[in-house]
Amino acid sequence: MRLVVGISGASGALYAERLLAALAPTRHHVDIVASKIGAEIFRQETGSDVERRVEQLTAAGARFRLWKRDDLYAPFSSGSQVYDAMAVVPCSAGLLGRMASGASNDLLSRAGDVFLKEGRALVLALRETPLSEIHLENMLKLRRAGAVILPASPGFYTRPKDLIDLADSLVQRVVDHMGVELRVHRRWREHAEPRRSASRTPASDVGRERSMES
Ligand SMILES: Cc1cc2nc3c(=O)[nH]c(=O)nc-3n(C[C@H](O)[C@H](O)[C@H](O)COP(=O)(O)O)c2cc1C
User: Fold this and answer.
1) Is 16 in the pocket of ligand 1 (CB under 6 A)?
2) Is 93 touching ligand 1 by the criterion CB < 6 Å?
3) Cα 135 to Cα 78: distance, rounded to the nearest angstrom
4) CATH hierarchy code of domain 2-213
5) How far is the CA of 38 from the centre of ligand 1 (A)?
6) 83-107 pLDDT tens trace
7) Is the Cβ atom of 21 under 6 angstroms away from ligand 1?
8) Which of 76, 104, 128, 158 could bridge to 93 as Cys pair (CB 3.0-4.6 Å)?
């Protein structure tokens, strides 16, 4: 599959880190773009630069490529290049608004515009609280345009052991909605299984030690 992962300027960089860690061992080609504040928050919240993290995972075999946030020449900036899905994790309310208005003024908002117009899977893990009427209207507008609004609001029914476990439960929902067949985390009614048993795949363990240090 050809995928795009966007990282915008909302809290919740751990979700992005865990999504990249889950996709790294797969054969999927993943184009990555972070907004200016998205990259800053990633550094603040994970202790690592997006660039360095992508380099590490690529050196370990991931088919990743990081794009500059204003590089509108990136292939996923054009509908003529065929991609399967895009996820923005986490998604800021600002980016939500730019996408809802069709203001394609940077690579993230342009990519969202392209995925919507081409009818491709677009998953937005919005992280903001509380939500204003403007946010709610933007969510409805984007939902009606075909996006999946997947708030960064993880469930607790799998009895998460730590933040990584909690983040992985949300990442599982993200990859499900991207159409990526990947087992990242145990599902509902699987929480009684012994912890760290076969329910956790190698994919979701990639980068775990690093994330816990952060
Ligand atoms: C430390 C920090 C945390 C932020 N957290 C959020 C957040 O959780 N949700 C949100 O919608 N905006 C948040 N913002 C505000 C956005 O970063 C801001 O609206 C920015 O313009 C979004 O730009 P982007 O969409 O290009 O990433 C935060 C800003 C900073 C500096």
Assistant:
1) no
2) yes
3) 27
4) 3.40.50.1950
5) 7
6) 999 999 999 999 999 999 999 999 9
7) no
8) 128
Check if the beta carbon of residue 128 is closer than 8 Å to that of residue 134.
no
Report the distance separating Cα 139 and Cα 147, nearest Å. 9
Question: Does any ligand 1 atom lie closer than 6 A to the CB of residue 88?
Answer: no
Given a contact cutoff of 8 angstroms between Cβ atoms, the answer to whether 85 and 120 are in contact is yes
CB 94, CB 9: distance < 8 Å: yes
Give per-residue pLDDT as tens, 57-90.
Answer: 999 999 999 999 999 999 999 999 999 999 999 9
The tens digit of pLDDT for each residue in 104-156 reads 999 999 999 999 999 999 999 999 999 999 999 999 999 999 999 999 999 99
**What's the gap in Å between 122 CA and the centre of ligand 1?**
20
Global pTM reads: 0.90
Among 37, 88, 89, which residue has the most ligand 1 atoms within 8 Å of its CB, making it the best to mutate?
A: 37
